[in-house]
Amino acid sequence: MPAPFDKNDDSVVVVIGTGAGGxxxxxxxxxxxxxxxxxxxxxxxxxxxxxxxxxxxxxxLAWTDPRSTSGDWRVAKDFSGLPAWIVKAVGGSTIxxxxxxxxxxxxxxxxxxxxxxxxxxxxxxxxxDAAEMAPWYEKAENxxxxxxxxxxxxxxxxxxFKVFEAGAKKLGYKEVHTGRMAINSADYDERTACQQTGFxxxxxxxxxxxxxxxxxxxxxxxxxxxxxxxxxxxxxxEHDKSGKVSGVVYQDADGxxxxxxxxxxxxxxxxxxxxxxxxxSASSMFPDGLGNSSGQVGRNYMRHMTGSxxxxxxxxxxxxxxTTMAGIISDESRHDPTRGFVGGYEMETLSLGIPFMxxxxxxxGWGREFTTALDAYENMAGMWLVGEDMPQETNRITxxxxxxDKFGLPVPNVHFDDHPNDIAMRSHAYKQGIAVYEAVGxxxxxxxxxxxxxxxxxxxxxxxxxxxxxxNKWGQSHDVKNLFVSDGSQFTTGAAENPTLTIVALAIxxxxxxxxxxxxxxx
Amino acid sequence: MAMLKDLTNLxxxxxxxxxxxxxxxxxxxxxxxxxxxxxxxxTELKHLKPETMATxxxxxxxxxxxxxxxxxxxxxxxxxxxxxxxAEIIEAGVAALDxxxxxxxxxxYVETGWERDRVDILRSMEKTLFFQTIRxxxxxGLYNQKAVWPVFGYEGESFSKGGYINRGFDDxxxx
Lengths: 523, 175
Fold this sequence. Notes:
The complex is a heterodimer of chains A (about 525) and B (about 180). Chain A has about 525 residues and is of the alpha/beta class. In chain A, about 25% of the residues lie in helices and about 15% in strands. Chain A contains twelve helices and 17 strands. In chain A, the strands form four sheets. In chain A, strands 4-11-12-13-10-16 form a six-stranded antiparallel beta sheet, with helices on one face. In chain A, strands 5-2-1-9-17 form a five-stranded parallel beta sheet. Chain A has a three-stranded mixed beta sheet with strand order 3-15-14, with helices on one face. In chain A, β7 (about 245-250) and β8 (about 255-260) form a beta hairpin. In chain A, α5 (about 130-145) crosses α12 (about 500-520). Chain B is mainly α. Chain B has one domain (about 1-160). Chain B is about 60% helix and about 0% strand. Chain B contains nine helices and no strands. In chain B, α1 packs antiparallel against α2, α4 (about 50-65) packs across α5 (about 70-80) and α5 (about 70-80) packs across α8. The radius of gyration of chain B is 19 Å and the shape is elongated. The chains are: A alpha/beta (about 525), B mainly alpha (about 180).
């Protein structure tokens, strides 16, 4: 049973957030006998609570605390108060994610070296590489039950996939399949096989898709070493006179403030909240924010080059039947500057229901150009385009002192300008996505603009040199020895792949490191 | 309630006469409004003038025209504006819409016979808060009504039916 820990117990590791980073880290530490208090801003929702209804689910799960936006990205115009589409719940965005689980390619760990100087980009090589990460990726794939890895079969192809696959083959693409997905193709690890229900974004009611909400979290709690406090929103991290972090201040559901002492603090609140928390924890010793001697906290915000292509055919597709993300084309994920940009992108099928299609197909659109598209919904196929975007120092999370949240704290402002490389890549991706569908007879195509960001990365990045980033190769703060970052904000660069598998692999690796250092008395 | 019914009846006569005058019963929202006279939205009007509601319904259809979706669903989508807090701004917005129609040489917005002319009027107001509020509200107000989903072929919830593993997730036959 989850043993409650005393708030004055300064021997515990406090983990902030319970998603792909924090949820996995909490469980991995608990399994190794480390005492963990995980503080989660959201409530607890399990498969029986999830709903096959897009807006109801959004209301149940989405992080809708006030945020502001700026910059030339289209999201700032279309969704000015909702820069990111992430989850506020035990399990975080692992409830919402589509399940794509791809390893980084070898060259993507060395973006600065591979791509060379890119004007305006703050590129840096990761302090770790493919060889270092290979065993951790394998553990992550086994934990998540990723299809097409570890001898696990692929998922069967849905209608949406079959259209996509046929187009890809006509175009000569070679790397086309139903994806490496953290969705069971057969019963695995006490989770059932996928029933092709759709609504993967709304939380899998079968539990066929991996989420920390119903795997790592309860397993960690079962050890007796993990206590998860729900609706506990951390507002500040405190430190002692020596500059080590000593505890966190959080608000409970009733608005009461608490202080939890800690031996080590690991932040995993997603790439918007994690830097915000460090900035909001500024003190006389750390006037620019906790762990921010580099000035890089909040900077280099990445959100992947994204876009979608939907296409209408003369016959039905019924793309909503089956997994939300049903297949992938990886041929364009290579680094090939002859295309006019560095890095690469993945093409992944995607489906939205009518309520979300109306909101996202062409935000702001109206009239018959818009409605005839929806009238053809049954005959529509869709894909998402996701590629590496360039880290830029000026793309950043800052504190917006003009807007306060319910705790009276400045909300995060998310500033993002597309880099010319992002724009060139998006335009290439639209062209190729359209070509895939036209190859199988699309009568009309829609190059759909980015949705609010689901992949939020880079705002506390890893660097070998403390001058260049916020954390070292273990996710440990360069400035504060017992402060760690455990989510996608530690990404040095974004790579083309969906980030969750890498976040999970890094969390498993970090837990191993932390447990070792704790037992040696180094922390 | 009696007074509201009278209002509705008055509007029915008005709208019918307008429809007859224009000879455009198929287009004019009036008859549908009347046909739906027993529906909740018609009798529940508490703050908006019935003419205003009729115009809003036509405006909603012109913003998101789906010829296979009946007026009652557009009415459901805009009836939230029949509230104390919004009535004033909506009446003002509809008055501006009618003024724009008059400026374009038509008697009123709903009496502008062709959709293309009404769309031109809407285009001229596209940047206004009124238009953007109505359009934005329709995205969920119209498309999140489960009753309209079958028009698009969308099947909605599937968990209770066991998903599509045995119900056609891969039944495409024309590739």
